[in-house]
Write a structure and sequence with these properties.
Blueprint: H1 11-19, H2 28-51, H3 54-74, H4 81-101, H5 108-124, H6 146-159, H7 166-192
Helix pairs in contact: 1-6, 2-5, 3-4, 5-6
Length: about 200
């Protein structure tokens, strides 16, 4: 097995992804570039979070904010203190939101990865956003299909044992489909009634 590249995959893993696209009229080099950029972004986000855990950073900035507040109260006229307090407060609010975003089983970084993989599937590869279901009469139950194989080949090398199973992938695909429908609906609504008035200033 070859060594991992900067996107975290070996040549064998890239070949496994390409095999899921066999028979499709698609530029595999383009697909690889798009996926590599996505994987690098995800790995960067994950490494940054590991270096600076959100809860730890939130608590650190809370302490800084408390100290700055005490100094402002004691020396209200000292230049820069009020701005330092404001900056600390902004960072506390940011890390509070980050902690909430990652609370429970939620992981926006995983959502970023999944959404990117599905975007490349539809926009670059030209695949359909959907999975197939086996006939209950044949004893099957797990969703399957080209998208499932592609998704597993992409996510497996990155998330390993955290890779979603067939039913998890189906749920991810369904959420993505609903999100796109919502975005499209908003786009149609804005096209009919834009927020910016084009007749402003006219008499």
């Amino acid at each position: 097995m070859t060594a991992n590249d900067e996107a975290g995959l070996t040549d064998e893993q890239w070949e496994a992804i390409a095999e899921t696209l066999a028979g499709r009229d698609v530029d595999l080099d383009h697909v690889r570039r798009e996926l590599a950029e996505l994987f690098r972004g995800f790995l960067m986000f994950r490494a940054r979070r590991a270096r600076n855990p959100f809860r730890k950073e939130r608590d650190r900035w809370r302490h800084i904010y408390k100290l700055a507040s005490e100094l402002v109260a004691q020396m209200p006229g000292l230049a820069g203190l009020a701005e330092a307090k404001r900056q600390a407060e902004v960072r506390v609010e940011y890390y509070e939101m980050a902690c909430q975003a990652f609370s429970g089983k939620r992981d926006p970084h995983h959502d970023f990865l999944y959404g990117g993989i599905l975007r490349i599937w539809t926009d670059v590869i030209g695949g359909k956003l959907g999975v197939s279901h086996p006939s209950p009469a044949k004893g099957g139950s797990s969703p399957y299909g080209p998208l499932v194989r592609y998704f597993v080949a992409c996510v497996g090398p990155i998330l390993a044992d955290q890779t979603p199973g067939p039913h998890g992938i189906e749920a991810i695909v369904d959420r993505e489909g609903r999100a796109r429908e919502h975005t499209d609906a908003l786009g149609r609504r804005w096209a009919k009634k834009p927020f910016i008035r084009t007749d402003r200033g006219r008499r």
